[in-house]
Amino acid sequence: MSKPLATSCSIFVGNVPYDAQEDELRDLFSKVGNVTSVRVVCDKDTRQPKGYAFCDFVDASSVHAAIEKLNNMEYNGRKLRIDWAERELH
Question: Residue 41, Cβ neighbours under 10 Å: how many?
Fold first, then answer.
């Protein structure tokens, strides 16, 4: 896993189940730190989830904890892939 040059408080979450809800993901990520926002990415035309999401935390230490504890964790039958996000969600 590669860390971006600037310390980000966001993670990329890949391999998200298509039926996952943002509030469920917020609950999961809240176990490792204070979450400020979660966004499941959807197709702009069909509005169907694309299978990945982003999560913002209050601090970078929560990002480290999420990557360390939740990467490759099975969630609703799929192993989540968690890494540093390229930029914040703002």
Answer: 14
